[in-house]
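Quick question, first post here. What does this chain look like in 3D?
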Amino acid sequence: MGKKKERATTWNYRVIRQVLDDQEVQFAIHEVHSTNGRPDLVTEDPVPVTSDSLVGLRETLRRMLRAAAKPVLEYEGFGDGGYHAPKQSRKKKEKGK
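> Answer (accepted):
Ran it through. Tokens below.
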């Protein structure tokens, strides 16, 4: 019998681009959960900047700034609302063309 591949699940902050109902575009920081490096879950709402200490607040802000240096993810790429599974990735769609 072969070994099952272990799933590595992580999370980090990411900038998410979302088109709102009135067609306004919003960029915000969300928590994104990934499995084996692939983003697959996103928080429905942007995350607040809070902490129980000044040191913790600074660390949260540092992590959020690092998120701004990464590629922006599309909210719609994850499906409808809340924690949700992604639709087919762009790379797969492009390969199918």
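Residues 54-68 form the longest helix (15 residues).
The chain has one domain: 9-79.
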